[in-house]
Design a protein that fits this description.
Elements lengths: L7 E6 L6 H10 L3 E5 L5 H18 L4 E5 L14 E4 L4 E5 L9 E3 L3 H6 L5 E4 L4 E9 L2 E8 L1 E4 L4 E2 L12 H13 L3 E4 L5 H11 L4 E6 L2 H5 L1 H7 L2 E5 H7 L5 H14 L4 E4 L14 H12 L4 E4 L1 H4 L4 H16 L2 H9 L8 H15 L2 E7 L4 H9 L5 E5 L2 H7 L5 E5 L6 H14 L8 E7 L8 E8 L2 H7 L3
Parallel strand pairs: 1-2, 1-16, 2-3, 3-12, 5-6, 12-13, 13-14, 14-15, 15-16, 17-18, 17-20, 18-19
Antiparallel strand pairs: 4-10, 5-9, 7-8, 7-11, 8-9, 20-21
Helix pairs in contact: 1-12, 5-7, 10-12, 14-15
């Protein structure tokens, strides 16, 4: 299924989008990747959604990526007598390990690891930052705080600790069970929550054991501070702006988003911009102008993908939300300013033969009448390198590995086509030309650029580039071998 845009769309599935008809409509409207949120739904419900996606993929002959998003450890306060309490600004409020019901003076915080890490002056945020506390005294089993921003706090509201790296594993026992379940289903990406350091990613990667690609969610200040190391350990990144906006001043989030997107691109790793992109479409068939501008900003920055959360999972207008994203993306990418911005932010990366090959492919495509860049890839690396160049022409990734094709569905500008194993370069050129014609990217008299690695079927050997005609008779007369 050919898209008329290069940024990809991730749609979260949930109660509003669990049946065959809705999931197919979401894909046809523009969803390239489906997110299965392991925080919601039973394993049976998630498995059913997975089966429907694979059925649609087979029917439409269109590789679809499935991303399983792990919940991560949840830090929550205990319960209150009467279900809630009112905290007054300037009051003293104690958090401790006492399991008795709380009141306006104290409550249980059943996480001794938090107390171990706290220091006087540290901030504690409760209920998505609506309640703000400052630690004045702390020990191994308690923290005394001053209420900086008061309000109503109720049972089991979440707690954020932005100022310290917590001695908490990114994978809870539930996450480990969910990870094994998701890998057993055959998902393509595992999204890791609560990442604070590169070690969190490494531990998850060991458990995944090559069965899926690992994507790190950047949602904590500690992750921003360790981003270079986390990026090196990850296959992809999600900029989870909602949680970042809780733990950091909201004005800090836009420049962080821009910086992280550029770093991901320079390392040829896909990056998703997520959270609250079309939030009003949970209840309205039309987005706000500010939301449309927000989506457009992520696209102008060069993000590989933009994501819908509750808009598609639980909203009243899931298909309309995807359609809106698709329309915004096409309009932005048709804007000459978009091309200017993308090309101005391109960095020269020439560390290997493959880097030089893909840079040459992009330059040739942009200085001659080339309709597409076709690359043959086993691991997906060549397609990622070409996508890093952000060429003006489409990228067709040819692979005989369905897992590689599915994972690349998350990557900017890449259209994946399945092909058989190849032994000769002429056969590769013929397959590329046929794919370009059949997928609607080129006519018989057009030309394409073909990149491949010889010997074939060996990952990491991209070493050849050819400008080729799309007409088979011309290929036979012009190609050696």
């Amino acid at each position: 299924m050919r898209r008329h845009r290069k940024v990809k769309i991730v749609a979260t599935l949930g109660p509003a989008s669990s049946d065959y008809a809705t999931i197919r409509a979401l894909h046809e409207a523009g969803a390239d990747v489906f997110r299965l949120n392991m925080s919601h739904g039973t394993h049976d419900e998630i498995a059913a959604r997975h089966r429907i996606i694979r059925q649609i993929e087979e029917e439409l002959d269109s590789p679809i990526a499935i991303l399983a998003d792990l919940q991560g450890p949840k830090l929550r306060v205990g319960t209150f007598a009467g279900g809630e309490a009112e905290l007054e600004e300037g009051a003293t409020f104690r958090l401790d390990l006492d399991e008795r019901e709380g009141d306006a003076s104290r409550v249980c915080l059943p996480h001794p690891e938090i107390f171990q890490a706290l220091e006087p002056g540290a901030a504690l945020l409760v209920n998505d930052g609506k309640i703000r506390l400052r630690v004045t005294d702390c020990g191994a089993d308690h923290a005394t705080t001053e209420v900086m921003v008061g309000g109503t706090v109720s049972n089991r509201k979440g707690v954020n600790v932005p100022d310290v790296v917590l001695p908490v594993a990114a994978l809870s026992d539930k996450d480990r069970e969910d990870l094994e379940f998701a890998c057993g289903l055959g998902v393509d990406w595992i999204a890791l929550s609560f990442v604070q350091r590169a070690q969190d990613v490494t531990e998850a990667r060991e458990l995944v054991a090559g069965r899926a690609a690992v994507l790190s969610k950047i949602e904590k200040p500690a992750a921003v501070g360790s981003f270079d190391e986390i990026l090196a350990a990850s296959d992809g990144i999600m900029v989870a702006r909602g949680d970042l906006g809780v733990e950091l001043p909201v004005q800090n989030v836009p420049p962080i988003q821009k910086r992280l997107v550029r770093k991901c691109r320079s390392h040829a790793k896909p990056v998703i911009v997520a959270t609250q992109m079309l939030e009003s479409m949970i209840e309205s068939p039309m987005p706000t102008r500010a939301e449309v501008s927000d989506v457009a900003t992520a696209i102008y920055e060069g993000a590989d993908a933009i994501m819908l959360s509750a808009e598609s999972a639980a909203g009243d207008y899931p298909v309309e939300a995807v359609t809106t994203m698709d329309n915004v993306a096409q309009e932005v990418e048709d804007d000459p300013t978009y091309t200017d911005i993308i090309e101005a932010s391109r960095r020269a990366e020439r560390a290997s033969v493959a880097d030089a090959i893909v840079a040459a492919a992009r330059e040739i495509a942009e200085t001659t009448d080339i309709k597409a860049i076709c690359c043959f890839t086993q691991s997906g690396t060549t397609a990622l390198l070409i996508a890093r160049e952000r060429p003006r022409v489409p990228i067709i990734a040819m692979t005989n590995l369905v897992g590689a094709a599915r994972r690349l569905a998350l990557t900017w500008g890449v259209h994946c086509v399945m092909t058989g194993e190849l032994e000769r370069f002429k056969q590769a050129v013929l397959n590329a030309a046929r794919a370009a014609r059949e997928e609607g990217y080129a006519d018989p008299l057009d030309q394409i650029v073909v990149t491949a690695g010889v010997p074939f079927n060996v990952p990491g050997t991209t070493n050849i580039l050819r400008v080729a005609p799309c007409q088979e008779s011309l290929i036979y007369s012009s190609e050696p071998g």
